[in-house]
Amino acid sequence: MKELHEKVLKEINSGDAEVLSPQKFAEKTKQLHDLSLITDKYSEVESVIRDLYTLQQMLDDPSTAQDKDLLEMTQQEIKSTTENIIEMEKQLLFSMLPTDSADEANAILEIRAGTGGNEAGLFAADILRMYERFAERQRWKWEEISKTYDGIGAVKDAAIGITGSNVFGQLKYESGVHRVQRVPATETQGRIHTSTVTVAIMPQPTEVQVQIQDSDVRVDVFRASGSGGQKVNTTDSAIRLTHIPTGIVIAIQDERSNQKNRAKAFTILRAKLYEREREKLALERRDSRRKQVGAGTRSEKIRTYNFPQNRVTDHRINKTLHELEGVLNGEALSEFIQALKIEEQTDMLMAMNDA
Questions:
Q1: More confident call, 305 vs 147
Q2: What is the pLDDT averaged over residues 254-260?
């Protein structure tokens, strides 16, 4: 990688770079940046190893043995430097792992109430607020694309566009079934009910990354339904897209403008097609030894929120936090995300070792 870094640097700095197309030059610059993240760490490790070699020479010097304080200081320095090298080498290994190009992308968050009736819808609203608060802490932009709810505040389904830095890279581990165990407000006997909510996180591709042929999509325009009063749409502004090759159907009726609903529907369709292709490639590449943490199939129960015990447990990594409120307000959610990221990196290192 160090040799490749030097080669790419020469290509960029040479006169030949002037004949490169803007796209090719951008690719070379990005490649140089990514390689620098690794080679810089490698140079740091080399430097500290040289320091360790110097310290070892000091320790072997007979004059050092005669000075008790110097001997003790040198031994301590060797110990701390060795520990530092081990940690730096670990970070170097992690930096060499293949990266997911979609990690830096914006994301589409989809939430659907599962089993549990109204209680599932109320929990879906709680989960939606959890991600909104987490997004606020990350200073991400939150845009509601569509949401279906009833009068008691229960959310049936919702689609949210989240824009910011490394959105998909952080949220991708959240896909799957989230389970809640609590006593509903309407429960008179104090019995604990179990409900579920399905979460899907999809990277948001650009129009260049996913091009949709007009002939592949059937567009139906219809009158939006509502709960009465001002919410009833009196124009045919609702949009339903049917992607003929895959059978994916997207219906949006939140906006009064036909064009706005159409744009939102195509945004979701593009994300679904992109994620479908990503899942197909991941399935082809996935090591049969172990399913990758964070693959996030929607049927997989990934986390339980137990209100009576003030407990949240992620079943993929057997991690439990006894701070339910901290997770639901988005503050402690990052602890699960970071642990899942480390688990994924460890799996990838083990796969590299097996190879």
A1: 305
A2: 78
The residue among 134, 34, 96 whose CA lies nearest residue 337 is 134
Nearest Cα to Cα of residue 92 among 135, 39, 17, 47: 39
CB 183 within 8 A of CB 193: yes
Q: For residue 231, name the pLDDT band (cuts at 50, 70, 90).
A: very low
Has residue 287 got a pLDDT over 90? no
Which residue in the block uniquely carries the two structure tokens 């593009």?
A: 270
How many Å apart are CA 187 and CA 117, to the nearest integer? Answer: 13
How many helical (H) and strand (E) elements, i.e. helices and strands, does the chain have? 9, 11
Beta strands at 217-222 and 193-203: parallel, antiparallel or unpaired: unpaired
pLDDT tens readout for residues 155-186: 999 999 999 999 999 999 999 999 999 998 76
* Strand pairing class (176-182; 301-306): parallel
Question: Please, is 109 exposed, middle or buried when counting C-beta atoms within 10 Å of its C-beta (0-12, 13-18, 19+)?
Answer: buried
Report the Cα 136 to chain-centroid distance in Å.
Answer: 16
Enter the tokens of residue 93.
């290994």
CA atoms within 13 A on the CB side of 103: 9
